[in-house]
């Protein structure tokens, strides 16, 4: 019990994270069409998850002791926070963005091919041993790593959450299923690979995990399985929803035929 209380008390004080989260919350009040509704709750929820991922004991464990804790941060920043923030955008704010000077850049970034490619590339790249090890020794690179996960998550989830007729990112239900299937590739390329490796590959964690009674290989396998299981469960769950949209409710066809008959 004392051990858990010790970890719970390891909250950090990084001014950049605290200020960034505060600005994100205050900025929402100025978003066009913002109201105290479920969208605001989604936005606040996303900001809270960012804060927990980067300032709680999870960050201490991920940066100093456990690769699996570091992986948990990656999953939160790339797969949990982005859909919450994008869903939190008011409709009027989305319309304003699409009419602003940044609209051409935004449309390019959220194009399904670019977004899926960037999502896959960033998640694979940062798990290359030399880059991940280096990120743990450089605060600026460590921050860049987490910001890049958040950025590619935002552009990836845009096409899933925001629907606009006539926009090139607007996908059919079948297109959504295919897109989400591509989104599950990082978990196969990275997660499954890490969970099957016979030896630890991240030198930064080789001797740290033993302090917590866990071998570096077990920690590596746990992190890989977390990514594989969480990513696939999330992507398959959302894909199942869109796949379900391909089929009309029972009796819908018959009702339609009845209406169109003279």
Question: Which blocks of ≥5 consecutive residues have pLDDT under 50?
Answer: 253-262
SS element count, helices: 14
Quickly give the structural class: mainly alpha
Tell me the number of structural domains: 1
Helical residues, percent: over 70%
Helices and strands, with pairings:
Layout: H1 2-8, H2 15-28, H3 38-55, H4 57-64, H5 67-88, H6 91-99, H7 103-109, H8 112-125, H9 129-135, H10 139-161, H11 173-183, H12 185-196, H13 216-244, H14 252-260
Describe the structure in your own words.
The chain is mainly alpha-helical and 262 residues long. The protein has one domain (10-90, 105-247). The protein has 14 helices and no strands. The chain is globular, with a radius of gyration of 21 Å. Mean pLDDT is 86; it is low at 253-262.
Q: Which features would summarize this protein structure in a list?
A:
single chain; 262 residues; mainly alpha; 14 helices; 0% strand; globular; disordered C terminus
Question: How do you describe this structure in short?
Answer:
The chain is mainly alpha-helical and 262 residues long. The chain contains 14 helices and no strands. Helix 2 (15-28) runs antiparallel to helix 3, helix 11 (173-183) runs antiparallel to helix 13 (216-244) and helix 12 (185-196) runs antiparallel to helix 13 (216-244).
């Amino acid at each position: 019990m004392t051990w858990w209380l010790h970890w719970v008390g390891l909250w950090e004080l990084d001014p950049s994270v605290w200020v960034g989260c505060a600005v994100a919350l205050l900025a929402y009040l100025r978003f066009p069409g913002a109201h105290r509704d479920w969208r605001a709750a989604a936005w606040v929820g996303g900001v809270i998850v960012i804060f927990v991922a980067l300032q709680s004991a999870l960050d201490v464990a991920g940066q100093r002791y456990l690769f699996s804790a570091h992986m948990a941060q990656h999953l939160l920043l790339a797969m949990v926070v982005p859909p919450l923030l994008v869903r939190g955008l008011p409709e009027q704010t989305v319309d304003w963005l699409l009419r602003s000077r940044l609209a051409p850049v935004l449309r390019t970034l959220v194009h399904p091919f670019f977004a899926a490619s960037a999502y896959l590339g960033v998640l694979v790249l940062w798990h290359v041993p030399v880059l991940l090890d280096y990120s743990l020794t450089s605060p600026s690179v460590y921050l860049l790593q987490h910001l890049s996960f958040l950025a590619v998550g935002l552009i990836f989830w845009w096409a899933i959450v925001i629907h606009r007729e006539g926009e090139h990112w607007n996908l059919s239900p079948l297109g959504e299923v295919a897109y989400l299937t591509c989104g599950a590739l990082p978990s196969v390329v990275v997660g499954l690979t890490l969970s099957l490796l016979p030896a630890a590959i991240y030198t930064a964690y080789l001797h740290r995990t033993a302090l917590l009674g866990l071998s570096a290989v077990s920690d590596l396998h746990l992190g890989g399985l977390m990514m594989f299981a969480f990513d696939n469960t999330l992507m398959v769950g959302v894909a199942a929803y869109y796949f379900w949209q391909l089929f009309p409710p029972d009796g819908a066809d018959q009702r339609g035929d009845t209406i169109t008959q003279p």
